[in-house]
Amino acid sequence: MSEVAPYLARVPGIQYGVLDTLTGYAVRRTQLRMYEDFVQALAAWHITPPRYSALVIISLNRGLKLTQLAQIMGIARSGAVILVDALADLGYVTREPMPEDRRAFSLQLTELGRADLALITAAVQAHDARVTARLNAQELETLHGLLHKLSGAREDDDGLPSDQ
Amino acid sequence: MSEVAPYLARVPGIQYGVLDTLTGYAVRRTQLRMYEDFVQALAAWHITPPRYSALVIISLNRGLKLTQLAQIMGIARSGAVILVDALADLGYVTREPMPEDRRAFSLQLTELGRADLALITAAVQAHDARVTARLNAQELETLHGLLHKLSGAREDDDGLPSDQ
DNA sequence: TATTGTTATACTCTATAACTATA
DNA sequence: TATAGTTATAGAGTATAACAATA
User: Fold this and answer.
1) Which of B3, B12, B83, B164 is deepest in the core (most CB within 10 A)?
2) Closest among A2, A21, A23, A20 to A10, alpha carbons compared
3) Going residue by residue through chain B (164 aa), what tens digit of pLDDT does each one get?
4) Which chain A residues touch B153 with a CB distance below 8 Å?
5) Is B27 in contact with A6 (Cβ distance < 8 A)?
C-alpha cells in the first residue's frame, strides 16, 4: 500500500481559501481524479489516456503519418515515436511504407488493434460513465458545452471538420 | 520556436470520434490549456500550480508539518521536501523547530512570502479570469458546481471544515 | 535545403525505499 | 517500534538537437 492518497483529495479541517474560487484548481482536481481512474480501469489493457487517444485518431484517420499524429496530439515527433512503438509492441499498430514518399510511413491499425479497440472503447466508456455517474444527461451536456468554451474553441469555429 | 503546438489543440479536418463524447477527454483538454496558461502567466514569479497551492495552504493553515502538507496535496513526503525547498529558495517559507516534537518542523510563511503571495494571488486570479472570460458569472457558478460533483465531494460532505 | 523518422540526451515530476534522529 | 524529514534512485513523460534517408 502506498503512502500517498489520491491526488488533491480534500482533507477535512484544512482551509483552502482562494483555491476554492479558482476554476483552474477545480479543473485540475477533476482531471487528476479522472486520469487516475482511467489508468486503473485500463491497466489490464496497458492503455493510458495518450495511447487511447492515439489509437482512436489512427483508427479514424487512415494513412496518417507519424509527424501528423504528433501535430494532432500536440507532442514532439520523438514522443510520437515512443507512443507508436508502444502501440506496435501491443500489436495494435503497424508502420506501412508510403510509395509516394519513401521517407514516411502510414500508420495502420492491425486486425487485433481494431478488434481490441472496440473492447477498450467499451471499457473507457464504462469508466467515463462511472466517474460522471453523479451527473444527469442534461448536466453532462451543460458541462461539455462549458468545457468546450474553455478549451480553446474559437468563436467562429463550428467544431465540424473542414473536410472529409 | 518550438516544433510543438499547444497540447491537444484541435486540428481541422481530423476526426476525433468517441473522444469528443468523453468527459475525461474534455476535462483533460481544458486542464492542459489552463495549466499551460498558468505556467506562462506566473513564470516571472517562478510559481507553478503546485507551488501556488502549497503557498496558499501554508498561509491559511499555520503550524503545518511537512508530512501534513504532503497528505493535503496528495504527494509523497519526498515530493513535499522538494516543494518546500523550492519555496524556501524563493525566500517564501521557513522551517521552524517545534518544541513539542524535535523531529518535525512547522512550515511558516516569511514576511516576503506573505507580501508576495498577495501579488501572486492577484496574478493568478487575473490568469483565471482571463482564461474563463468566455463564461459569464452564472456559467462559472454552474461549472464549479458540476466540477465539484465530479472531483470527489461526497453526498454527505457539506464542504465546510470540520474544525478551526 | 527541407522534411521524415529516429536516436541521444536531458529535464521535470512523481514514486519507492532506505537512512537519521527522534518519539 | 513507529514517525518526521531527508536522501538516493528510478520510472514516466516530455522536450531539444543532431543524424541518415529521402524529397
Assistant:
1) B83
2) A20
3) 457 765 577 888 899 999 999 999 999 999 999 999 999 999 999 999 999 999 999 999 999 999 999 999 999 999 999 999 999 999 999 999 999 999 999 999 999 999 999 999 999 999 999 999 999 999 999 999 999 999 875 433 333 333 32
4) 10
5) no
